[in-house]
Design goal:
Elements: H1 3-22, E1 26-29, E2 35-42, E3 45-51, E4 54-59, E5 69-75, E6 79-80, H2 83-89, E7 102-114, E8 117-126, E9 129-142, E10 145-155, E11 175-185
Antiparallel strand pairs: 1-4, 1-11, 2-3, 2-11, 3-6, 4-5, 5-7, 7-8, 8-9, 9-10, 10-11
């Protein structure tokens, strides 16, 4: 190997190592301690629900949030409000789980705000509709686990959730309050 070739090889390996070091290490979701819940209103009456099945791929470094990324998939068929409502929500007017079984969120940027607070920007896709979303989150750490909590409001009609007769926001409110708690193993210390 010539001196130029070996110098280029060393530089390439160095850049590859630097690139790998600049990426946040992946974390593991603790599903039994994590949750995604929501509150919708029908005729002004709150309906509390949750999703029983979801997963997340995270690589989050709170000291370098710009190197981090988050991807979440929610099994829409796992929705749980009450037995009657659950049967309706999987139908075409609502989640249409036969054609759109998953909702997804993919981060595009994560910004540190100080004191364990972050803003996660990304794209939320539900029922074939995709919209930008900025979510404020709080990170706390205790006993070797990290907990990321946050809340946001989404407009269900932006995602065509509640089509047809259900599109009237005086029957089912357009605003849906979403809250989440993701418990993670392997997040670097704040």
């Amino acid at each position: 190997m010539s001196r130029i070739s070996s110098t280029l090889a060393v530089m390439a390996l160095g850049l590859a190592g630097w690139s790998a070091a600049a990426q946040a290490a992946p974390q593991t979701l603790v599903p039994a301690s994590s949750e995604i819940t929501f509150v919708a209103k029908q005729l002004g009456v709150p309906l509390n629900g949750r999703f029983k099945a979801f997963n997340a791929q995270l690589a989050f470094d709170p000291k370098q949030p710009q190197t981090s990324h988050v991807a979440i998939q929610i099994d829409l068929g796992s929705v749980a409000v009450n037995p009657d409502t659950d049967v309706e929500l999987v139908k075409p007017e609502w989640f249409n789980t036969a054609h759109f079984p998953k909702a997804t969120f993919q981060s595009s940027a994560i910004k540190g705000l100080g004191a364990g607070k972050f803003e996660v920007q990304g794209r939320l896709s539900i029922k074939g509709q995709t919209h930008d979303l900025a979510v404020p989150v709080q990170l706390t750490q205790a006993q070797g686990l990290s907990t990321v909590t946050g809340a946001f409001t989404l407009k269900r009609l932006d995602f065509k959730v509640g089509d047809g007769d259900w599109a009237d926001p005086s029957v089912v409110a357009n605003d849906v309050q979403v809250k989440f708690k993701l418990v993670l193993q392997g997040v670097p210390a704040l």
